[in-house]
Design brief:
- Helix 2 crosses helix 4 and helix 4 packs parallel to helix 6.
- It is built from 7 helices and 9 strands.
- Strands 1-2-3-5-4 form a 5-stranded mixed β-sheet.
- The chain has about 260 residues and is an alpha+beta fold.
- It binds uridine-5'-diphosphate.
- Uridine-5'-diphosphate binds next to helix 4 and helix 5.
Amino acid sequence: MVFLKRIGGRKSDELRKITITRDYTKYAEGSVLIEMGDTKVICTASIEDKVPPFLKNTGTGWITAEYSMLPRSTHSRKVRESSKGKIDGRTQEIQRLIGRALRSVIDLKSLGERTIWIDCDVIQADGGTRTASITGAFVAMADAVYKLYKDKVIKTMPITSFVSAVSVGIVNGEKILDLCYEEDSNAQVDMNIVMTNKGEFVEIQGTGEEFPFTKEDLDCLINLGQIGNKNLIKAQKEALGEISKAILGEEIEVV
Ligand code: UDP
């Protein structure tokens, strides 16, 4: 693999420094601060004992996500969407992506008729905010769901796999993992890869608008995504400690 000189001296297949802090805020059932280099996102998971009308009396639960960037999370102040009165296309796309990613690793039947509200609030944006949101929100969701299991509200752990996400791209002709803003804004190809701990792909979003890419490029980017997600899931497992075993289906003592 060719290594290019990157900001911070990173190798092309190296993630930024990851920090996952659990129980970051007081009230939500699950709350996490995820830091990927200078990108920082607070992710909370809140449990509500009801489901949207289309799921009423089905015995099935639901997960939905909201995403936003604080006005001064970016280089110049971004007007709050609530003061504009409408949610822009980018935000809608991101919150749906987060919801789909998390729903792909949970058995909604064993969650029962309850909704998990995921809120991802970007406090500092330096590229990869949607992917950091997915990786952090998974940990917040695991904490919230584990509380239900521990309190015997649900009989089994409904989470079937870990899920994480990372960006990859081509910048100055080089394929790189986990782009920061500077790299992202100069990228010819930009891709987000969502994966489980079983090595399955949940979603791949890739664009080479003015620079179409080849199958060979795609294979190389997917390989980088696999490396990144493997390391992100390792960080999630370390952050969750004992709870990881319940997700991986190992017997653990519930206290
Ligand atoms: N960004 C920004 N203002 C915006 C949207 C994005 O400053 O309104 C910056 C921010 O650093 C973000 C990066 O551009 O992380 C890349 O944005 P993109 O839409 O690709 O989403 P992300 O990579 O954050 O998932």
